[in-house]
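worker-3 :: picked CubicO group peptidase (Beta-lactamase class C family)
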Amino acid sequence: MRPVPSPMNPPPVLAGLDEIVVSALARHRVPGCSVAIAHGGRHWTGAYGLARTDPEQPFLPQTRIPVASMTKPFTATAVLALAEAGAVDLDQPVRRYLPGFRVADEEATASATVRHLLTHLSGWLGDEPEFVTDRGDGALAAQVAAFSALPQVLPPGTTFSYCNTGLDVAGRLVEVVSGQSYESFVEDRVLTPLGMTGSTFFAERVVSQPAAAGHTREDDGAPHPVQDAWLLPRGVNPSGGLISTAGDQLRWMRWWLGELDVAGPLSPRTRAAMISDPVPVRAGLAATGLGWHLDYLPRGASRVSAVYHEGSLHGTATVCRFVPEADLAVVVLTNADDGQLVYREVGDILLAELAGIGKFDRKVSRDTGERELAPYAGSYSTPERQDTSSRVEVTVRPGTLRLKVSTVHYDQPLEMDAGRVEADEFALLDGPWRDEPLAFLREPSGELLGLRIAGRVFPYQGGTA
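worker-3 :: tokens ->
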């Protein structure tokens, strides 16, 4: 399969972008993608390769694709719209708005706030292994009711740990406070005002429209279509159920940049508050706002805030990113698990060429001494839920750490190496999360608390024999 570009007519500095995207798709064996750019009041969209491989269908700018966790900022925006109207106080307990809500830990049930939901600080298990399959209007209520057995990983407010379940609770809060279904509220207050007519939470509404199939790499190395990329249960729509297009995501990004001449769901002041005073994740390098993540990337002698969210579903990988100080936004939507390798490569080039923004300059060691690495060896795991827990086993190899990761997201364990950057910070050297950070977390006493990988905290269970 040889991807064929749909030219974007980019500005002169990006005259080679079509070739860059096509090359990245071929190198990483991703069937296709759509790309959208906004910069300095101008904008472009384009599409490359195939949306489906069996039968073959071209990827188009208007091709629908699940954007998974890119839904989370929409949920946060819905909550902030209610807050702006005086109906929700972010610093009040969740139970003020959902009196029947509970998780397994009573103290966490009582103390978790609305802000904790939007900043991934609730501390309870973030990935529910069992979904409610109901597609009716009561699906979200039933899903959140099932969270009553969710175990606590950390006390609320301890540290960032990526939490899908927290955003689903936030979506249920939207329903109860507004009196509408979650999907209707987001459509009425966010999608429609912004002119995002190609976006929906219901796959059945777009069956006659161009739509991408997800793809995963099999043993032969080739991308193969998967059947369940569009079958996310309705009860988890707030954490990852939106279906969208590059053009619609571009309108979303332009609104965040202040370019769209529409009122939109939030005032400029509230929008700014969502990405201001964020919760640190990696000191001076990364943080989380209300529904958004932030990277502090080098630009000349200073750093700029790159605000973003990624999405990953079985067979798709997507990202939207905007840099207010550079008046720049980039959207890349791909239809393969390995698509993150494409969107990182293409996104890095666009940020560098259009705004002079660089990447993290991290010197990763592959020859750290065994004595320095040995204290990190051991078992790290989340509490059990439905007889299932996610686990990371860490062992020492010559110069690096070796990780074996077992999670509810993958049928087979993932194995990868990690090289030390500094102190308790490492970088993953291979596998699907290559170049992503691995952080070891400590108690105030200095004792090992756990590790954070793929944004999720795994508490330390003990060293290896």
